[in-house]
Write a structure and sequence with these properties.
With 362 residues, the protein is of the alpha/beta class. It has 12 helices and 14 strands.
Length: 362
């Protein structure tokens, strides 16, 4: 009898949904049935890749960010909403498991998506959150609280390398780790191109992502800087719930691209601009493509990653407030001459761990 897995990505932007695409592919390749539990945007992204799957609609609200640089107060006010979301997703899963046969629960950063009756797997790259400067003294306490939640799961899988170089720094590499964990390497929708050098269609590809209103603010900034330039530009707006396309001068805007379409656009582009989200960073590390990363203002994890990776010889890190298109492209051209690809060993493959869990549960 075929085994069934239920998998659920966090709904803070689209990164958590995009990075489970290769995991779902591996499960399906191993003849494991997959059920997806997600909110509307995340479900729509995954439907473009896997229209045949069963989808369960979750209804937790997405965290919103401030229009300014400091997100501390805005996020603090949303903590009750976040806690309620954890409780709601746990109850939703409990109800579903009472009526359906599931063999493994997989949660990508959803702390309430676990079961005491069914083996539960937690995926995260954030074992120790990065807090704003005025709250840094609470980082150790926050890491301890996260470990309490993570240790409710049977195993924690970390999408990174255990050694050096790695992509996440102290986010995923701590002195005190969860009770049971494994590094599983890069999770990416992308595949290394068979043809290394392909004809270029665009001077610039800009991939937008993340919560509002900062996503729209960054789009407006790019449009203002590009509208009087002669760069052939493709902007992917990161909205899978819409299916729109428009052209403004030399700028083409599309609401969303599938993984295959996005990689084609990447291969056809001379230069790439994107947010410093960890899933996007993994995508470009996988294919060894240099890129300009612009962290969401006040999103401390992205700011940390941008700072951590700025000397990696693959990424140019620029603050949104300092962003100037021609200067950014000049810096990117310099690292293209010397960048290297991230290569390291992993503890175990994702599908190997899932097979072990299934075997031990029989």
């Amino acid at each position: 009898m075929r085994k069934t897995v239920i998998i659920s990505p966090l709904n803070w932007g689209l990164g958590h949904a995009s990075r489970i695409v290769p995991l779902i592919s591996q499960l399906l390749d191993n003849e494991i049935l997959v059920v997806v539990a997600a909110e509307k945007k995340q479900s729509e992204l995954l439907r473009t890749e896997f229209p045949e799957l069963t989808y369960i609609q979750l209804h937790n609200p997405e965290i919103r960010y401030s229009a300014g640089k400091n997100q501390t107060w805005k996020i603090f006010l949303q903590i009750p909403k976040f806690i309620i979301g954890i409780v709601r997703e746990h109850l939703s899963l409990k109800r579903y498991l009472s009526d359906n046969q599931i063999d493994i629960v997989i949660s990508d950063n959803r702390y309430g998506f676990f079961s005491k009756r069914v083996p539960s797997v937690f995926i995260t790259h954030q074992l120790s959150p990065k807090l704003p400067k005025n709250m840094r003294i609470f980082e150790r306490l926050a890491a301890r609280v996260l470990r309490v939640f993570i240790n409710r799961f049977d195993v924690c899988l970390i999408p990174d390398f255990s050694g050096t170089p790695n992509l996440s720094g102290t986010l995923s590499h701590q002195k005190i780790m969860p009770k049971k964990f494994s590094y599983i390497g890069i999770l990416s929708r992308f595949k290394k191109p068979e043809i290394e050098f392909q004809p270029k269609k665009y001077d610039i590809l800009a991939v937008l992502s993340g919560p509002e209103p900062q996503r729209s603010i960054f789009e407006e900034l790019l449009m203002n800087q590009l509208k009087n330039k002669k760069f052939s530009t493709l902007i992917v707006r990161g909205n899978p719930t819409k299916n729109s396309e428009e052209t403004l001068g030399t700028i083409k805007l599309v609401s969303h691209l599938s993984a295959e379409q996005l990689q084609t656009a990447v291969n056809q582009s001379k230069n790439v601009i994107m947010r410093a989200g960890y899933s996007s960073i993994m995508d470009f590390a996988k294919i060894g493509k240099p890129a300009i990363i612009v962290p969401t203002p006040g999103q401390t994890e992205q700011e940390y990653l941008a700072e951590y990776l700025k000397d990696s010889m693959q990424f140019v890190s620029i603050k949104q407030s300092d962003f100037e298109i021609e200067d950014a492209l000049k810096k990117l051209s310099e690292i293209k001459k010397q960048h290297f690809e991230f290569q390291s060993e992993i503890d175990a493959s994702f599908i190997q761990i899932i097979r072990q869990i299934l075997a031990s549960a029989e």
